Every structure is written in structure tokens, then in C-alpha cells.
Amino acid sequence: MLAAPVVPAPEAWRPVFDPYPYSYPYPYVPVGGLLGIGFVSHPDTGDDLVMVVSNDGHGLFDARTGEKIARDRDPDQEHSTPDAVPDLSCPGLGPVAGQRVRIAGLFGGGLHTTTEDGWTLEVVSPAWPNDRVLLSTDGGLPHSGPHGERWWHIFHADRSTLRAVGFSPSGRTLAVATSSDLTLWTRDL
Q: N or C: which terminus of the chain carries fewer CB neighbours within 10 A?
């Protein structure tokens, strides 16, 4: 694990965010004080949306384009963090206003670690506290085959603390959230 370099996700997955200006070593969007993220489906299109909860409020991103489609810089203090309710959710915003969105991150919770068609995500820490995110098609540890063929080291959290890693329920989006940024990959099904 220590010798496996960070490599691009396999061809089925493409980075969502524009590599300029933030691209080390994968395109991301900065989100200072990120606490957690959650997935929700757009009510009209069914597309994946990613809700981000941070110290600076809540944001909603289109998971295919990376466009920020809604922002609440001053959410109601009673609902500003997911630890205020037992199901770790926050009120939706923009097109999902009126819904609750479950959030995974600093306060707990989790995202999907597998897809219906066999992709798997794992977080390993061979050099703790720097977490590594592995994507595979071989069912997970122990990995069969060499790095870059059936498993890929796609993310190394050496600059910030990992908050959440997972797939959307649809399996079309893969997200990695740290305390300082959000990285997304998407694919066609």
C-alpha cells in the first residue's frame, strides 16, 4: 500500500471539477471547514446532487457538472449541523428544499462503499494519519492483480482530514470529502 502511487481513476470514471485552478493531484473544489456530505436525487431529473455542510453554511452541487446550484451561508442554527437530529440529516436547499438529507462526516454516518455492478471503495491507513482511498473491481482487500489493473489508489489525504468517502445510491457518483475540499468523479450507467 505504501508503494502504490496515486493514479487517475479508471476510464469509466471522470473527474467532475475543472482542473484549473485546483488540481493537485486530482481536480477538487475547496470547502473550508467541511463537516460532511450527503447525496440526494434531483426531484425533476433524478440526477445525483451532493449536499455539503461546512462551518460556512450549506451548499448543493450538481454531481455531473460540479455546478453549485444552491447555497445557504446562514442556515438556522438549530439545523446547521447534522448532529442536531438522530438521523444525522440537515434540511435540503434549492431544488430539494423541504427534504431532509442524511450527512456523513465528522459526526458519523456513512456513504455506500459498493455499487450494484461491482465497484468497491476502501479507506486504508498504512501511514496513519494519512488515509488513502482505494477503488477496485476485485471485491476489496486483499486485492487480486497489480495496482492499476483491478485496484487503484485514487486519493491520498495527506493535506487534510478525511471526512467521508462513498458512492451515491445510484452508483453514478464517487465522492471524497476532507476537512478542506470535495473531490467528485462521475460515470455513465
A: C
Reduce the DSSP state of residue 104 to 3 states and report it: strand
What does 34-100 look like in DSSP terms, one character per residue? EEEEEEEE-TTT--EEEEEEETTEEEEEETTT--EEEEESS--GGGSSGGGSTT-EEE--GGGTTSE
Q: Give me the mean pLDDT over the 62-79 stretch.
A: 92
Query: At residue 25, does pLDDT exceed 80?
Result: no
Is residue 79 scored above 80 in pLDDT?
A: no
| Residues whose CB is less than 8 angstroms from the CB of residue 170 and which lie 6 or more positions away in sequence, other chains included | 41, 46, 48, 189
Q: What is the pLDDT of residues 131-148, one digit of tens each?
A: 999 999 998 999 988 999
Residue whose entry in the numeric block shows the C-alpha cell 484549473: 20
